[in-house]
Structures are given as C-alpha cells and as structure tokens.
Amino acid sequence: MLTIRSVNISEEKGTVKTARELIQLDASGIAGDAHAGAWHRQVSLLGEEAYELMQLDPQEFPYGSFAENITTTGSPSKEVPDLKYCQPGDRFRCGNVLLEVTQIGKKCHGPGCPIQIKTGNCVMPKEGIFTRVLSGGTLKPGDTLHYERKQYRASVITVSDRAYAGIYEDRSGPELERLLREFCEQNQWPVTVSRTLLADHADGLRLVLENAIEEGYDLVFTTGGTGIGPADITPGVVKPFFDKEIPGLMEYIRVTYGKDNPHALLSTSVAGIAGKTLIFTLPGSVRAVNEYFTEIARSLKHMIYMQMGLDVH
C-alpha cells in the first residue's frame, strides 16, 4: 500500500506545485491543476523516496518541487516495490477514487526547466508515473492508495477436426501458449491463458469468441483453419466480430514469408479488434505459429496500449 504524504497543485505547466489540504478529482483530472484535461497524463505521482535519494533539504524543496500532484510513501506491493516498476493499466484505488497508470516517467523540459533550475536535477523521467482518473472523489494527506496490478487474460483456440478427434496431437496450440506466456513474462505482465480445442465448426468457434469478447479478454489467438480448403472457416467466422480490422499486419506477414515460400501467400489470416479484445488468426502449423507470432510480437505491446487509449511510445 501507498500512503499519501502530500497533494499538490500548480496553475501553470512546467512549474513546481504547492501543497493543498485536499484535491478534488473528476473525469478531467484535478480541479484547478494545469494538467487537468482530456488526456492521459492528468495526475502525476512520485514517491518521497526520490527526495530522500537526492538528499534534498525538505525546507528548500518541499513536496511538489518535482511538479508531482501526489507525493507518496511506501511501496505498491511486494511484487512491485517502487512506483517506477508499475505498468500502464495498473490501478490505484482510494474510496471512490480510481486512478489508472498511463505512463512511466516523462522527458524533462531541459536546461531551462524551472523545476530543474530549482532542484538541480529532475527525477520524474525515471521515478514518477502518470495516471488518468477513472472515478473521481477527494484525496488528502494520510489517505491510503491500494494498488491493483493489471491482470492480462488471453485465449488460445485451436481449430482442427483431426486434432479434435484425436487423430493427431495438437502441437500448435501449446506452442502458441508458450510464445504468449514468454512474451508476457518478458514484459512483466501477469497473464492467465485459457486453451480450447475445437472442430472446424463455425457455431462452436463463434460461441467461444462471443464469450471471450463479452468477458473482456485482452487477447485471442486462433490457430488452424486459415487456408483455402472447404473446412477452413476460421477467418470467415472471426472477421464479422471486428469493430476494426488491422489488415496491414497479416498482409506484411504473408508477403515477408511468401518470398521464400509461395504457399504462405495462400493464408487468409486476419487480425482486428472486437470490443476490448485483440484477435489474431494464425495458421495451424508450429512453424507458421512461430513465424506469425514473431512478427505480431514486434507491435503487440503498442497495440495493447493503443487499444487501452494510451499514447505510449
């Protein structure tokens, strides 16, 4: 848990903030603060440990000197010992107030920055975090912020008559799950992965997709059924669910691997967004799963954050 040591406001951007008895938050941020508005960096947080690290005189450099709205003490959790290790999508809750992490650190304004002139250094690029207000209310010194780590949910669906009938072992589904878990581990994303094996029947696939989208899964990957044969139904079932298609991704993969293997050009794989869920249809071979996931992974983190409405680069 984090305890609030100070709440701070400034009427102009790029200046130090001064302490208040309390702050009032709403959908635009903090009432009266220069950073309020319809964007993703409404409320900034910084641990008092940053002040201690720089050995600053608290009389000369009171809380708010680094332009943070909320100065905290303590750690978010045992798994996340410092604010700077939070991830976009994590949340802080205090009563009715709910803040969602949107960015870790920011670039300093440079040598002419009033904060840098005042403090001699700026710790916000490495130590501070930014949040947006999901639910408003009042915060004051002494209040406790409860940390809620973003938990990702993913679904891996194998679509294959023969694997479903037990004629051969499903190998692409487990491989896709392995790649997905490895990707999340590299990005320090806690993830739960469910795996489903289906026959090449549209109704069964449609039902699993409907449930995943309704439950707000972050990711759905299918493997199998992306060819041009009569039993290859996956893209045709998936595509009507899309609110937005991402055509360039699959087009790039087909062209990239089709240069050496013309059969790769016959894939009808699609990618898109349905509700809050990113969906990708991959071919059914282990080799193709590795090829497709390698290319998807290059943009996957950015796609996740874009889907969350975050301008994180």
Order of helices and strands: EEEEEHEEEHHEEEEHHEHEHEHEEH
**What is the average of the pLDDT values?**
92
Overall morphology: elongated
CATH homology-level superfamily of the largest domain: MoaB/Mog-like domain
Unreliable residue stretches:
none
The level 1 CATH classification of the largest domain is Alpha Beta
Kindly estimate the percentage of residues that lie in beta strands according to DSSP. 25-35%
| CATH fold-level topology of the largest domain | Molybdenum Cofactor Biosythetic Enzyme, Chain A
Total E-strand runs: 17
Word description of this protein:
This protein folds into two domains: 147 residues, PK beta-barrel domain-like (M1 Pyruvate Kinase, Domain 3), CATH 2.40.33.20; 156 residues, MoaB/Mog-like domain (Molybdenum Cofactor Biosythetic Enzyme, Chain A), CATH 3.40.980.10. A hairpin with a 2-residue loop joins strand 7 and strand 8. Helix 5 packs across helix 9 and helix 8 runs antiparallel to helix 9. It is 28% helix and 28% strand. The chain is an alpha+beta fold and 313 residues long.
